[in-house]
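Quick one:
INPUT:
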């Protein structure tokens, strides 16, 4: 059985993703994905981890745009989620997909080298 914190975390993640679809900031560049969220013990801070498919300029642009839209997103959450305290939202870049892609590439190279050498 999930505790209240886990249920709230999942609810906030779903509602945050829906709210981000309504953001019309031109700074949100590339393909952005919310990869995870964490909720502090006192439930006053929501950290949203995101990744961006694009170059470094798009990543910086998206980071600034997300910072600008935090008050809007908090307002949307306040309208959609009926709880007493809506947490502050902080976005943090998650480079896990990029690292996973690099590891896959390296493993592929190792596999190719193994096939090229005779046993």
């Amino acid at each position: 059985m999930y505790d209240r914190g886990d249920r709230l975390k999942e609810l906030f993640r779903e509602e945050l993703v829906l709210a981000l679809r309504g953001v019309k900031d031109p700074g949100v560049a590339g393909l952005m994905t919310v990869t995870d969220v964490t909720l502090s013990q006192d439930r006053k801070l929501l950290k949203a981890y995101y990744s961006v498919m694009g170059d470094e300029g798009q990543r910086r642009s998206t980071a600034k745009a997300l910072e600008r839209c935090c008050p809007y997103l908090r307002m949307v959450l306040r309208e959609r989620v009926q709880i007493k305290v809506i947490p502050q939202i902080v976005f943090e870049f998650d480079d896990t997909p990029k690292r996973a892609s690099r590891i896959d590439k390296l493993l592929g190279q190792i596999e190719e080298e193994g096939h090229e050498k005779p046993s």
